[in-house]
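Sanity check record (used in CI):
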Amino acid sequence: MSSFWSIWISVITLGSILGCFLILRWCLSNKTGVKEGEDMHHEFDGIIEINNQLPKWWTMLFYVCIIWGVVYLVLYSGLGNFKGLLNWQSSNQNIRSLAESKAAVEALKTNGMISQYDREIASADAQYAPIFDAYFKKPITELARDPEALKVGQRLFSQNCSQCHGSDAGGQRGFPNLTDNDWLYGGSPEKIKETLLNGRQALMPAWIDVLGEQGIKEVVSYALSLSNRPDLDPKLVAAGKEKFANCVACHGADGKGNHAFGAPNLTDQIWLYGGTEKAITETLTHGRNGVMPSFKNTLGEKKIHLVASYIYSLSQNK
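Expected output for Cbb3-type cytochrome c oxidase subunit:
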């Protein structure tokens, strides 16, 4: 932090604390000209104002808070470029990656210091590691029927996956629904766990340069016909079927997709980016590039084992 910002923050912080102290002292002084306990001659709706000072317990509470604020600044949080006498910090600052986080933790350990956040993580790992170890020894199919294991898996899902897939795992545009039996890369316990561990990189290329606008219109018509859409132009469908040869390598000759490539089934009514003529045209014209991040370094294999169990359980009654 530059000297300017260090001074700026210090002045504002100390000024605020001093301001609170001065306001408190002003409130405690009697500048009304009316003796304490007497009528202030203010009345509203039958309520008369009496000149009473703040209750002593309330006054003492204000003083304690002000003193504690100063003590906290001196010992813990510091001020500006001053780090505090105890050199304490809540977490490792300015971290941009997991690698930097691990390096910062090791550096603090070397210097005989550990941030508050790292202490809490270490304590939680020590407390809950045996629980995760026990669950890890059980197969996903068994954990999918264990209510207690599913509760843990659901909490981990809510913390790490719900931002994209929704709190109910129902998905949204561009993010798959995990509660049905439609899977881009396969819905077996092994495949779900593989996806969570390694992530996925999906690529649907743009076809505008190859097919042109008319060609895309024809392929869109054929793709819609695969899911039995009504009121399609037979000529466009027939022409699109011939051009669909460009798509067979990923989606298959029957359009039912390929788990090896993450290519979706085009014969059902489930569409990741929308199944309208406009949405499919947009997909063919511009392509799609979906990313599922790897959680291997974030959660670790044992926690992923529980998340996979929870996700697997969601589609078993569908």
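The first strand starts at residue 39 and ends at 44. If this sentence no longer matches the regenerated tokens, the check is flagged for review.
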